Amino acid sequence: MRRYLQWRGYEVQYVQNFTDIDDKILNRANAEGTSMQEVSERYIQAYFEDIRRLNVIDASDYPRVTENISAIHQLIQELEKKGYAYAIDGDVYYKVQNFSEYGKLSGRSLDDMQAGASGRVDSEDSLGKKKQNPFDFALWKAAKPGEPAWNSPWGVGRPGWHIECSAMVKALLGDTIDIHSGGGDLVFPHHENEIAQSEVITLKPLARYWMHNGMVTVNSEKMSKSLGNFTTIRQLLDRGVEPNALRLFVLQAHYRKPLDFTEDAIASAENAWKTLKEGLLFGYQYGQQLGIGDWGVGTRDWGLGSRKGKTNTQCPMPHDATCYMPGNPSTAVAPPCPNPYVESFQKAMDDDFNTPTSLAVLFELAKELRRQGNLLTHQGKTDTSSETIQQQWQTLVHLAQVLGLEAVPKDETDAKQERLSNADIETLIQQRQNARKQRNFAASDLIRDQLQGVGVTLIDKPDGTTVWH
Ligand SMILES: [Zn+2]
């Protein structure tokens, strides 16, 4: 989302908050005999490690609840003053029946909702008996013995869960934000409660757009602790799944839809990444052979650095730094001239971030480049002009980068990987014939499989000769 908006010329300020205090963290700290702060810090650091391995750009800001206690106090006091909050025995609750629009995000109405319909409402407030309405939720909770706690106008305690977001949005971004995102499981009550807290104070919409992502399922079942069907990002990466394959796995489903995790889906994402990577490395592999300059092959700085200033005056698309994508500056590329691929990509992404369709554009380019690479290898020439191929490659690299998908050769020899010349293939076929003569079928099958693996099919003729595609 962020990369795409930046590519479209928006300046993005992206704030992501950490809830560094809640019941789960406290329970874990108690179980481990350590502090809430220690547990939070450890998981925050682990999160950063994982997310950076996935090539996710850092947010502009990472506020934490415990750093925003005074902003939280202020907001609760305002709610109290306006008649939307009431304090009982050191707890403070939000009075939902005073907000006539309560339920508008999730399409529920207070009248229709039955008490206890949401587990989260109840588990949040074990002392719920004191509430005037079962859907009133805690803004501030009186401290239990041994819990971390802060002084407040209502006594010693800690913030409720929902208030942190309203307070941090107001403190860091203002009254209305453009996009509020989060998991689909947070629509009710969490986001509903954020709206209730913020909008009665600011009298403005909290967010112009709400983007809720679908949940991850495992073999179509809910991912849950009790089912024991968890796989972590770290486990996948540590077992050798490439970060870009994982990125593809996520992007191939629309973000609002559920994402079904299966071993087959991961394997197919890995295959898809292989195809795409081959396309992204095309310029390194064939650029010199195609004989057009400035493919940037051999220099890592083939992106913005090498093309900047080389404005094509024929091209209406601005070739300037506005399209520069943050991330790895050495791989950033200037935008290609407008072409049907760029247009289809943009049309898909403008339609509520339709990544499955935008990915199809990338694969179309990658497959076309693979075809040209095969022609070049086996027939010595392509059937399209070098200029067109170069533009296709640059378009692919550029658009892939908008989705955070990047590949650079590990070293110079890597650029020539897995490409067999006609002579190489003939040699292997001869070796296979020899193996067959010696009735060493294991060896002959191995050679056939190896060739199959790089897209070469062998056909044994009745006369004993072998031809290949
Ligand atoms: Zn929130």
From TrEMBL:
**Residues that bind ATP, according to the entry?**
225
Alphabetically, the GO molecular function entries are: ATP binding; cysteine-tRNA ligase activity; metal ion binding
Coiled-coil residue spans: none
What catalytic activity is recorded?
Answer: tRNA(Cys) + L-cysteine + ATP = L-cysteinyl-tRNA(Cys) + AMP + diphosphate
> What SUPFAM superfamilies does the database record attribute to this sequence?
Anticodon-binding domain of a subclass of class I aminoacyl-tRNA synthetases, Nucleotidylyl transferase
What are the required cofactors?
Answer: Zn(2+)
Q: Where is this motif: 'KMSKS' region?
A: 222-226
- UniProt-annotated location(s): Cytoplasm
Broad class of enzyme this protein falls into? ligase
**Stretches assigned to the Cysteinyl-tRNA synthetase class Ia DALR domain:** 344-414
| Subunit record text | Monomer.
Keyword set includes Ion transport:
no
For biological process, the GO terms are: cysteinyl-tRNA aminoacylation
Listed EC numbers:
6.1.1.16
Name the gene for this chain: cysS
Check the record and name the InterPro entries matching this protein: Cys-tRNA-ligase, Cys-tRNA-synt_Ia_DALR, Cys-tRNA/MSH_ligase, Rossmann-like_a/b/a_fold, tRNA-synt_1_cat_dom, tRNAsynth_Ia_anticodon-bd
Give the record's keywords alphabetically. Answer: Aminoacyl-tRNA synthetase, ATP-binding, Cytoplasm, Ligase, Metal-binding, Nucleotide-binding, Protein biosynthesis, Zinc
Q: Which family does it belong to?
A: Belongs to the class-I aminoacyl-tRNA synthetase family.
Major subcellular site: cytoplasm
Superkingdom is Bacteria
The molecule here is called Cysteine--tRNA ligase
